[in-house]
Amino acid sequence: MQSDTLAGAAITFDGVGKSFDAKGGSVMALEGVDLAVAPGSITGIIGRSGAGKSTLLRMVNGLERPTTGKVMVGGRDVGTAKGARLREIRREVGMIFQHFNLLASRTVRGNVALPMEIAGVPAAEIRRRTGDLIARVGLEALADRYPAELSGGQKQRVGIARALATGPKVLLSDEATSALDPETTQTVLRLLAEINRDLGLTILMITHEMAVLRDIASHVAVIEGGRIVEQGETYDIFTAPAHPTTRSFLSGVTGVTLPRFLADRLTAERPGGPSREVIRITFLGERATDPLLAEMSAALGVEVNILAGAIEEVGARPFGNLLISVPAERGAEARAYLESHQQRTEVLGYVG
Fold first, then answer.
1. What are phi and psi of 31, to 5 degrees?
2. Contacts by 51-55 with C-beta closer than 8 Å and gap 24+?
3. Using one digit for the tens of pLDDT, what is the confidence trace for 247-304?
4. Of 44, 35, 28, nearest to 14 (Cα)?
5. Disulfide-capable partner of 318 in 75, 111, 237, 288 (CB 3.0 to 4.6 Å)?
6. What is the 3-state secondary structure (H, E, C) of 244-281?
7. Angle value at C-alpha 162, between 158 and 168, nearest 5 degrees
8. Measured between alpha carbons, how far is 201 from 170 in angstroms, rounded to an integer?
């Protein structure tokens, strides 16, 4: 990775590899990982189970150490840090967990206070800061409740408050919403977005849900087989995925599919006789909601049949997919018109 990319990053993975001993030899969990996480960003790492994303996350606070390469937090090498220096780094890296990891014997107040007690913070400061954090996550009325008395979303809010207790600069999220229902997930994501905005925290999160990244992440890295196979700004990844793994993750989030009766008739080659070209249009940016097809039909006199479509937002920017068909002999002309208006097109095939 280029040094100018590393400069100023809150977290950097520079040529990181990680192997584990296994029966008959060693297993590579990560290999050649290069990733720079910008300060103040929300970066999501997505991958299937076993892809290496949890191992990657655990390297940021030194719970795992790289076999090769370097993991840097705020310019400090986590992999070589020991003793007081490692404890200092860990105080600047908060972590929230999928299954909350709260102490059942402690109240909400007690769970949030625990990291400060361990760090030796004065009692008066602990009381003040604990109250502030509980208020930030909206649990003032539940401060003296125990985890068994809380819902899943409330437990995760306690986990977030606890992760903020030592005043970290980086917040790690380990599948923090995967155990929650959709409505509660949205509530937790809004809270994380607020924390990112208000405190300027850098958030690095792992997930297997592309919809989570669509709703909150500024940047995305896709991991497969221990390697980063694609990375970039969330909008760019969603609108133009380059790797098959990324496209697979996106298929259930942004993809629109042909009706079955048309998909069964679709051919890769244009058949003889009258036929129609099936085109996927990716609508981007400000023109995503414009009546572009109506304009094209009027300008070219092309008959357009809309087959399926959806428009949504990625990071508050509009993005849509639309499947259409046009007479095959006018397909190239229609695509040229759309592309001249900054839209992406893809020929899916032909129907007779």
1. -150, 120
2. 51/223, 51/224, 51/225, 51/226, 52/18, 52/223, 52/225, 52/226, 53/206, 53/223, 54/174, 54/206, 55/18, 55/29, 55/30
3. 888 876 765 677 788 888 999 999 888 999 999 888 776 666 678 889 999 999 999 9
4. 35
5. 288
6. HHHHHHHCCCCCCCCCHHHHCCCECCCCCCCCEEEEEE
7. 140
8. 6
